[in-house]
Specification:
CATH topology of the largest domain: Alpha/beta knot
Strand order of the largest sheet: 3-2-1-6-4-7-5
CATH class of the largest domain: Alpha Beta
Structural class: alpha/beta
Number of helices: 10
CATH architecture of the largest domain: 3-Layer(aba) Sandwich
Distance between the termini: 49 Å
Largest sheet: 7 strands, parallel
Strand content: 5-15%
């Protein structure tokens, strides 16, 4: 597999075709060709192709998904870009730190960009391991989607060029992907409701638990162990 195929640029509900075309152009500049579009019908049009300026192949070969969860389920490291302040503090990296982490782990990486107007929702952020914050002037923090994508794609390329390992040849097969982690989190919430630890009321607590396990970057074996523990609790309750 080509090295650039290990990074997926995910755009959640983009509203401006021109912005999507600009992202495609930035990706192609940096040798990246894997674009995923979430709930974005009819976004690949003439305006998008015009802004892509020769990088239309990325647009035409982009994958379309109904939800962010589906778009990243096979990824082992998911990074969210955001400029919003959150009620729960979230582990945050600068662009260079994030890309160095991805390359050092040989992670199957997704970089997620939210809606132009209001970014990512909390439930979408819960699917991500880390947030990326681009260091901009606080007096004018809003950044164009294509500009932000250019910075992150360039940092990925730079980290890749500076890396001494053979990225993509020794992928960490032991890391759990998002589908496996999400399955565990659903199982955990079910078990905590059974024991009345959360009793269906504390969504904030579940968000904190998701943050904890996302930061941990569980391996497949660890997920299996944790789910085995939950199953033993369930069996004990059902007796």
């Amino acid at each position: 597999m080509k090295m650039s195929n290990y990074i997926r640029i995910v755009l959640v509900e983009p509203s401006e075709p021109g912005n999507v075309g600009g992202v495609a152009r930035s990706m192609t500049n940096m040798g990246i060709n894997n674009m995923a579009l979430v709930n974005a019908p009819d976004i690949v049009n003439s305006d998008a192709l015009r802004r892509a300026s020769g990088a239309g192949r990325v647009l035409l070969e982009s994958e379309h998904y109904p939800t962010l969860e589906k778009a990243v389920e096979d990824c082992t490291l998911v990074l969210a870009t955001t400029s919003r302040k959150r009620s729960i503090s979230w582990p945050t990296l600068l662009p260079d730190q994030a890309m160095e982490k991805a390359v050092s782990q040989n992670a199957r990486l997704a970089i997620v960009f939210g809606r132009e107007r209001n970014g990512l929702g909390n439930a979408e952020l819960d699917l991500c391991n880390y947030m990326i914050r681009i260091d901009v002037d606080e007096r004018f923090p809003s950044m164009n989607l294509a500009s932000a994508a250019t910075i992150l794609c360039h940092e990925f390329r730079k980290a890749l060029m500076n890396s001494e390992n053979s990225f993509g040849k020794e992928e960490r097969e032991d890391l759990a992907n998002r589908e496996q982690v999400n399955g565990f989190m659903t199982h955990l919430e079910k078990a905590l409701n059974m024991t009345e630890f959360i009793d269906g009321r504390s969504s904030l607590l579940m968000r904190k638990l998701k943050r904890l396990f996302n930061r941990s970057q569980l391996t497949r074996e660890e997920v299996n162990i944790l789910r085995g523990i939950l199953k033993s609790v369930e069996d004990k309750i059902d007796r």
